[in-house]
Amino acid sequence: MAENKQPVGLLFDIGGVCVVSPFQAILDYEIAQNIPPGWVNFSISRTSPHGSWHQLERGEIKMDADFFANFNKDLRSPELWKQFNARLRQNKAHGTAAAATLPPMPEVDAEWLFWEMMRISRTPDPYMFPALKKLRESGKFVVGALSNTVIYPEGHPYNEDAIGLKSQFDFFISSAHSGLRKPDPKIYEAALKEMDALAKKKGIGGASASDVVFFDDIGENLKAAKKAGMRTVKVTLGKTQDAVRELEKLTGLELLETKDKAKL
């Protein structure tokens, strides 16, 4: 696979890539509540694939009182709390000895935190979002979105695409609407099929997996994309400008604003 060849398709995760990361809301909450950083993400990831969060993102359950009650339970698992602290002790093994006594499990207001995550992730990323517009204007690539999403209750204001996010893409694959959630291999197959069809329709030839570069902020999602044959770029929390700079190298386009280039 030619790593340096210009891609036909560019595929983007949404949260933490095109909009501000919900992980930032989690980290801010943990710091404010004196919760060990990483606990919320650990407990969410370890309840996969049948945790309430994962069911919501596959569109299997509604966003209602039952979801929030079960999400709260997922963040209050004694067994996961033991595992998390065991990992903390292991990480500290090379430093001073960590206390063997299990500290009290933190109280997490799961519903408040959920809505804070949703709120913050409606803010366009200051570097990637303008770059997306320039990519679309160039007309040289198929630009797609592949995102783990949720479905808001009918009539909720977050159903409105206030920032015009979806209009930046040739196609948008949503986990909650498709019933498939990253890192399920089937959702990558669906994205590649759509990329290939749209590339042919645009008259720029087909798109094989190696013609597609996928941008995401979660390691397991990137590993699955690599396994599907795509090239990948890891987007680091708080460093989306680095991902845009990589996008510039891949496309040959100037995507960062002049003022932003001066900061790099």
UniProtKB/TrEMBL annotation:
PANTHER family: HAD FAMILY PHOSPHATASE, HYDROLASE, PUTATIVE (AFU_ORTHOLOGUE AFUA_1G12880)-RELATED. InterPro entries: ACAD10-like (IPR052898), HAD-like_sf (IPR036412), HAD-SF_hydro_IA (IPR006439), HAD_sf (IPR023214), PGP-like_dom2 (IPR023198). This is Epoxide hydrolase. Coiled coil: none annotated. Gene3D superfamilies: HAD superfamily/HAD-like, Putative phosphatase, domain 2. Transmembrane segments: none annotated. It comes from Aspergillus cristatus (Chinese Fuzhuan brick tea-fermentation fungus). GO terms for molecular function: phosphatase activity. Pfam families: Hydrolase.
